[in-house]
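quick q for whoever's on today - can somebody do inverse folding on this one?? i tried earlier but teh output was garbage lol. tokens:
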């Protein structure tokens, strides 16, 4: 999946007059962007990623990238609606569409519980829309319940993408510890 990006990078660098050995060193040293599909660990053959995705377009593209890089592997999306926009009902249907790129979806409780219900993203509706699309999904109320459930159900070869624009209660480390 990275090959086209590498080739494009080499082409641009060459056009700019950079020597190939300098381009090669730079590409080999690149370790990715923090919180953009950042691999945080692996336990029992399950890989856990951190991603800043909090908008339906970012969610869809992140899941598309994971699926493209690992065809045939089961992809989990664990989502914390935390940002000002992701907590709002305005993206209700868009999130339902975006998460169809996952094999399993876990939705945490909306972070901004002070929003009026008429404006707040509905976890129950999102789960129902995903189920209607054939994607197993569940709303789990807190980090400990999410960790316990996912650790019990995850299998070797699974890819777990945790999506939030915040710390999500330290879920990454807790999940890796529970998987161990």
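ok took a stab at it. sequence:
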């Amino acid at each position: 999946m990275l090959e086209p990006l590498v080739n494009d990078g080499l082409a641009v660098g060459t056009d700019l007059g950079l020597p190939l050995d300098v381009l090669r060193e730079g590409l080999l040293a690149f370790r990715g962007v923090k919180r953009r599909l950042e691999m945080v660990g692996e336990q029992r053959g399950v890989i856990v990623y951190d991603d800043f995705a909090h908008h339906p377009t970012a969610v869809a593209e992140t899941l598309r990238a994971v699926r493209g890089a690992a065809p045939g592997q089961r992809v989990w999306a664990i989502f914390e609606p935390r940002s000002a926009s992701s907590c709002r009902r305005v993206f209700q249907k868009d999130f339902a569409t975006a998460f169809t790129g996952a094999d399993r979806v876990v939705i945490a409780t909306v972070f901004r519980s002070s929003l009026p219900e008429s404006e707040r993203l509905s976890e129950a509706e999102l789960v129902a829309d995903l189920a209607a699309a054939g994607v197993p999904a569940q709303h789990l109320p807190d980090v400990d319940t999410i960790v316990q459930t996912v650790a019990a159900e995850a299998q070797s070869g699974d890819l777990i993408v945790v999506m939030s624009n915040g710390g999500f209660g330290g879920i990454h480390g807790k999940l890796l510890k529970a998987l161990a």
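fwiw Residues 33-179 form a domain with the Protein-Tyrosine Phosphatase; Chain A fold (CATH 3.90.190.20). also Residues 96 and 126 are 6 Å apart (CA to CA). so keep that in mind when u check it
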